[in-house]
Every structure is written in C-alpha cells, then in structure tokens.
Amino acid sequence: MTPIVDRRRPAGAPLAEVRVKRAAYAVGAALAAILLLALSGAAFGHSPKELLALLIGGSVGSPFALQGTLLKSVPLLLTGLSVVLAFRAGVWNIGGEGQFIVGALAALVASRYGAVASLLAAMLAGAAWASLASLMRLWRNAPEVLTTILLNFTAIHLLGWCVNGPLREKAAMYPQTDLAAATLPRYGGLALAVLAAIGAWWLLYRTREGLRLRATGFNPDAATWAGVNVRAQLVRAMAVSGAVAGLAGGIELLAVTHRLFERFAAGYGYSGIAVALLAQLHPLATLASAFFFGALVSGAGELQRTANISAAVATFGQAAVILALIGFEHVRRRT
Amino acid sequence: MRLTRITKSFGATRAVDDVSLDIAPGEVLAVVGENGAGKTTLMRIAAGELAADSGEVSEHGTVGFVHQHFLLVPELTIAENLAVTHRGFRFASHRTLAREAAATIAATGIALGDVNRRVADLSVGEKSKLELIKAIARNPSTLILDEPTSVLTPHESEELFRVMRTLASRGTAIVFISHKLPEVLAVAQRVVVMRAGKVVLETRGATAQQLARAMVATDVGRASARPPRERRAEARPTFSTGDLILHEHEILAIVGVAGNGQSELARTLRDQLPHAAHIPEDRTRDGIIAGLSIAENLALRGVPPDAIHHYNVKARSAGQNAGDLSGGNQQKVILARELGREPKIIVAAEPTRGLDLDATAFVHDQLRTAAGGGAAILLITSDLDEAFALADAIQVIYRGKLSARMTPEEASTRVANLMAGVA
User: Fold this and answer.
1) Is this prediction's ipTM beyond 0.85?
2) Domain coordinates of chain A in residue numbers?
3) Contact between chains at A214 and B299 (C-beta distance less than 8 A)
4) Among the four residues A31, B58, B73, B339, which has the most C-beta atoms within 10 Å?
C-alpha cells in the first residue's frame, strides 16, 4: 500500500536539514489552514481579521482559554500517538474511534476498583478491540483499513446499546450512564498523555523492539530477511496502538465527561489521524500537533459562541491542514 | 543524442562533473566505472528523469531506459504489465492481452515463456528480460541499459547482446552501463570510462586491463585469484537438508541458470535457519531498509555502527540514511550486518551482483575470511567465475533439483551441461 506520508529523504540531504524542512512544511500547513479558515469566514459576512482574533483569543488568549485547549488536546495527543505507533509499523489502524469507545466503556465498568484499575482496563479493552483486526488479518488476510473502520461502527452501536440498556443511569432520564466511580484530577490526564508521548518516542527510537517495528513499517520484506518476525510486529503494533487509543477514552471519561453518552467519542479517534500526519509520524512532534488541533477546537468553540459560526469549522480546519500537507509533499517530490 | 557540459550534485557530492557526450544512431556505447562513479546519474539526466544543475541535453526521438531495479507491478501478469505501458485505457479481454503480449515479446527476439504468469512469481532474470522487452517494444531511438547483465546468466547475456546488435543494426543508439569488461569489449564499439563524476577515458580500442586501470585509478588484478585455503580434516557438517550438506570452513557454491529454484532455495533456508547470516539476492527489495539509517540497519542484527569502517562503507556517517548510498555501498552495509556478528552459517545469494571490481574483491575477501574463521558458507550464484574463484565444492541447480556435489575440478568439465539440463 502507498504510504500516506513519504518518509524518504531527498538524496544526500543531511538529516538535520531534512528535519528542519519537515517541521517547516508542518508549520506552513498549519498556518495555511488557519488563514483559510479566517478567509472563509468572509463568506459568512465576518471580517477575516475579526475571526482570526476570535480563534486565537478563544484558544490561547486567556488562562481560561488555554486551559480549555490543553484539556482538548489530551485525547488528541493520545489518539495521535496511537496512529503514529501503528502507521510506523505499516499497520493502517483507522479504528482509534472504536478503541477509544471500548476503552471508555471498560474504564467505566472497572472504575469501582479505582482510577488505576480503570485506566488499565481501558488499555486492555482498546488493545483487545484492535487485536480483533489483527486476528482477521492473520486468519483471513482481511485488510485492517477496512476491519478497523467496521469495528468503529460496531463500537459506536455497542456504546449506544449500553447507554440505552444495561448501563443506563438509575434515574433513567437520559440515554447516558451514571457517573464513573473514580475520577482523575484535571491535569492528571495531561501528565499521562505527555508521559505516553515520551514513552512512545523511547520505544520507537531507543529500543530494539522499536527498531524492528520501524523496519517492518519501512520494508517488511527486508525486515524478514534481517531476522524480524514481521507478523509478530504487526500484531504487537496494533495492540499497543489500540491500548493507547483505549487509554485516551478512559482518561476522557475519568477526567472530563465522568459519564458516557452516545456522542461520547466526538471524532477524537479520526482526528488522531490528522494529528499524527501533521506531526509527520514523530511522537514528540505529536505534542505540538495535538496542541494545535486542541487550539483549533477551542477556537472554533469561541467562534460558535461569539460569531454564531458552527464549531464544525474545526473539522474544516483539520481537512485544510491535511490538504495543505499533501500539497507541500507533492511539490517536494517533484523537485 | 548530445550531452553538453552536464553537472549534477546531490548535497555536497558532485555526482556528475562537467561531462559532454555524443551518441550516434546505430552505435553501441558502453559506459563503465565503479559504483558511484556517476554513470546512472548521467544517464538518468540523458533520459530526462533527472534535471541537470547545468549543461544541456539535446536529443532526437525517444529514449528508453531499462533500470537496474525493476519498475514492474508484481501483482499483475507479464501480459498485463506490458499492457499497462503500451495499451492505455482501451478495454480488452485477457486473451487479447495475452496474444498482444506474446506478439510484442516475439518481435523483440527474447524468450520469456508463458505470459500469464504473475510478475511476483518470476525470477530476477525473467523480470529483467521483461523490463528490456517493455523498453524495446516502444521503439526508442536511444536505448539505455543500466547493468542489464548483472542478473543474467552467460547464456542470457549472449541473448541480450544479440538483441542489442540487431537493434543497433536497425539504427537504435544503445548505451550500455556495465562493470563487466569482457562483455563491454565484446559488444560496444566505443567505451567511456567514468570515475568520480568525470569522463576519464573515451576509447575505441582499449584492452580490458587499460579500462580497468582507468576505472579504479589504482592497480587491478585483485578481483579473483584464489589463495589456497587450508582444508581442515575435521571439517564437519553443520547443516543439511535434502541434497544439501554444509560443512564448517567450507564454501559450497550452488550455480545455475536464473529461475531454476535459487530464490526458493534461499527463502527456504532463511525460514529454516533464522539465526544464520542471509545475504538476499534482491538488495533493494530484501536487503537494505532505505528509510532507516546505516546504524539502524546494522543494529537489526546487533552489529555496532563502527562496522562501516571495517567494511569500507563510503558514507558521511553511520547516521546517514541507508537509502542514499550507492548500490555497492548498500551491499557492504548488508554484508556488515550479516557477517559482523560472526555467524556460523552464511547463505549468500548473488552477493556481488552489480558490484564493481573493488567491491567484488572486497565481498570475496570477506567470504573467504569468514570461511577461514570456521563458517559454513552457501554461495548461490549465477556467476561461474565467482563460483570457481571461491568454492571448495560446487552443486548445480536445475529445475529445482540439486546435482551431486563436485570438486571444482570435476565441475569445470561438467557444469555447463548440468546447467543446461543435458547431463
């Protein structure tokens, strides 16, 4: 399958120069997306300048706004890392959304045993859900791009059934669950997510297993000749990726929403793909990338409150970033 | 075609340095030189695949380029691959495609067998034939062949030269990039020697010795000449499967025409002996991991980065991307990775394919040293010179079956017949 992100460097270019170039592309894409957003506001009869001010003010303009942005970037950071880990092994895990949901479900059920047990359960559930796709790959050679997407729908309906049925709140007023029995401090999730980013970097770039994982992603044939068990790598990468997405769901439940409802996932799983691509599949760059998308979401919230523009512009912004990245990549490959 | 004062740099390396060259219709021009001398870069510029930093390319008609690596769709059949490049988007039945492909192939005078086989199932030799057919079928006015014989048996090479001569007699200009000097002298009317991006010699009547000297600047003659190695009496079998027995301190060569089961043999041994050293025949697909650094490629087998000095890898540092290296240096990285941890068993498939004299001599030395140190080596090669230069024992592979073990002396009289399946 053709890689979405081209990891080949131009012939002979020194590593540092390439890193700077890559970072420049990513920053350029982010800026281009914001400009596009502001300009498109003109269509709604707002001045771009005003919209830009709202976007920035609503995301990083005040301590309160910054707090909102940081909280929003936690699930994005984790689902982004989940995608980085899978894509680096050449596994197309598009199932972050489903793994996020089953992670949260498991966290809710296990929350009576405390926050730690709850988060462990979330990771296990995410890993197990993702591994369903690996098993289908191993047994029937089913492509994980399809199976993980289908498992997303399965998870969404599982959640819908749970909040309307067995896990519905005692009061039976709304299709939602009761509060989770455990909670995380507000910034506990942020700390965990940052640790996860550092952990993912360490795993990928400082361990033998991480090297094998990346070798598998770059060239599974050559990795096999070099003694790597490629199938085991794929299964492992999928499980780790699912565990991180599940953790994201668990943290979102324990630190932010405290209960589950139908629209709980809110697209965090899919947004993780955008986060990972903007970070050029580097775990530490994912920190910046997640913060940027978190800011985009909070900024879009401010637009909705103040200028009555739908917060869906955040999704538009995400798409614009990816398109700008693809555009840059296209230009780079032609030169 | 005329190239005028072409210059091209990659980063700090000047790959092609102020080169001018004319190629006339009906001429066979050979471009020779060591790995990284700039031959391929120059020809990619001539074919319009790369833009030169400065200089001018003027050409009449089209240029066909047969690359050293394959540009084929492995999931498709031979017929479908030909249709992809020649037929465009018109609808056609599989039978039509097969008929057209067979006709196209017949017109080139190259034998390729059943056109309904998937390219993934072809041997390297067959794939290179298909690449050649693809290029010839377009009737290019200039045809560039990058190391076409490196994957061919002597017989297949002869076939190729016949095709080249026919094409030239019809007015096609042919550029032939090669390391193999006897071939170059046999087929080319004019020879250009490149070294470090420059043309250092242009000649119509040089000897192999003169060409070799121009290529490497230092002296030649190291390539083969086998120093006698002490055979130990206690040499004992370390591995055996079917008709194959490997002994310590011994190099066993498996020779044969490409496509007789060599690839399958190598793959089987890879799966049976995961801890042995394996040098795969297809270096770019199976050997190097281009996206990783040299050090990371080595670390996959636990070999430290400073091995690049021991194995003479020409790189700025071990942190450099392995994909940026020239073919010969990539092979040295693979060699370092596989031999660096002093394995007991080494399976080397076509370890010097496409390498220049220096690199070939180096690989041979490393294999001899490893055998001297006690390793059991299986050398799978389609290069008979290589087999005779290195092997203590020789077996021929033909249609997936191995012949009996022979000493090199026995083999020298019988090998040709066994390879052709007439013995």
Assistant:
1) no
2) 26-334
3) no
4) B339
